[in-house]
C-alpha cells in the first residue's frame, strides 16, 4: 500500500477491520499533542447537517473465468465438474459484480449542490448522498476535474437543505485550529480536531499541488469531506493522508478553499474547467543551473521547451528563458508558474518578466486555454537527407553520434528531432550522475544548436577559453526535454 493514500473507502468489509479499530480513537477526538479549544460543539452542531456521506456503486466486469478441466471420457468426476463450474458461473468467464465505495462531501448550496473529491466518484454507475437525518438522495455529476481532484454533484431535495460557506484559506496560519467532519471507515458524522501543520505542501498528487497539511485525524472514507476553521467556514477539502497502515498518523492533506472555489464556479457554469495556458515545458532552477545561466541565486521557472503554435511562441519566448514574474506575481520556484497561469483567465493579456542572457526582459503574452492546448496534434515529419557521419565520438564521458536513420530506429527518436544522440555513457563521468543514458538526444549545448559531435566539442572549447566552468545541455528523451547542467573539464 502506498504511504500516500487517497482516502475514499472501497469495500469496507474487505478491510482488516480489527486493524482499523486501532486508529478510530485518533479519529474521534482532539489532536494527540497540545490542548485543544475548550469545545467545538457549537460549530459542529451548526455545520454537521451540511456534511454528507457519499456512496457509489460500480459494475466491474469479471475476469476471464476458469475453464472446466479436461477429463478423460467416462471419468466418474465428469458429471461433478460440469455441475460445479456451470452452477458457479466459472465457464468462459464469471459474472459481473458490483463494487461499492464510500467517501464524504458537503453542501454549498441549499438547492442541492454538493462538493467532493473526484476520486470518490470516479467511474461510478450510481452516486448517492446520505444525509445526517437518515435521508438518501441520488446525485448526478455536474462536472469533475481530475487535475485538482474536485467533483461537483447535484441532488434534488424536496425542500432546501443545510449548506455551508467557503472561508478564506489564505488567512489560515500554521498553528490555527481546524475541524474535520466526514465518514471515516464508513462511520458517518465523525468529528476530529487539530491544527494547520503546514501550508503550500507539494505531495506530487498533481500539477497544482498546494495542500494544507493538518494533524486533525483523517482516515479512509474522509475523502471529499470539509476542513473547517473555527468560524465554521470550509477552508479545505480533505483529500489524502500519509500512512503506512491506511489509518491516521496525524499527517493529512486538504485542498485549500482558495484553489477550490474558482474550479467549482467553472464546473457549475460550464461542466468543465477553463484554465489559462501559455504552451511551455518547464523545470526547476537549481544552484547548478543558476550558475550555468549566470543569474545568481536559484529562482524562477526555466523554459525547457516552447510549443510551436502556443501563446509563448507567438509572444517570442525562447527555450532557456527563466520566468521570474507573471502578471505581477513573483515566481519563486517552478511549481508557482503552472498554478498562477492556470488561475489566469483565458484570452487575458498579461506581462511576464524573464531572465535572458542574464538580463531581465518583459514580454506581453495573451493566454490560450489549457484544455485546447492538451489536444493531440500530429507531429511534423522531417524529410531531410540523412546525415553522413563519422564513428561516435567521446565527449564529457559521452559517446556521441549525429542522428542517422539507423539511430532513429534504434532509439525511437522523433522524426523531426535535430541534435546529437548519446550512444554510451561512462559510469565514472559526472554526467552519469545527471541521469543521461544512451538514446538521449542533446539538442543544444549552452543555447547553441548541435548537428554533430564536433559542434559540441567546439562549443566546450570556446566556453573554457571564455573562463566558463559549467554549461547547460538541452536533452530530449521521447517527447520530454529538460536542461542538464554539466561541469566543463
Detailed description of the structure:
The protein has 489 residues and is α+β, with helices and mostly antiparallel strands. The chain has 4 domains: 23-30 and 43-56 and 101-270, Thrombin, subunit H; 62-95, no CATH class; 278-373, Roll (Pdz3 Domain), CATH 2.30.42.10; 393-487, PDZ domain (Pdz3 Domain, Roll). Helices cover 18% and strands 34% of the residues. The chain contains 11 helices and 29 strands. The strands form 5 sheets. Strands 23, 24, 25, 26, 27, 28 and 29 form a 7-stranded antiparallel beta sheet that branches. It has a 6-stranded antiparallel β-barrel with strand order 9-10-11-14-13-12. A hairpin with a 4-residue loop joins strand 7 (136-145) and strand 8 (150-154). The two termini are 45 Å apart. The model is unreliable at 10-33 and 377-392 (pLDDT under 50).
Considering the chains and any ligands shown, give keywords for the structure.
single chain, 489 residues, alpha+beta, Thrombin, subunit H, Pdz3 Domain, 4 domains, 7-stranded antiparallel sheet, 6-stranded antiparallel barrel, 29 strands
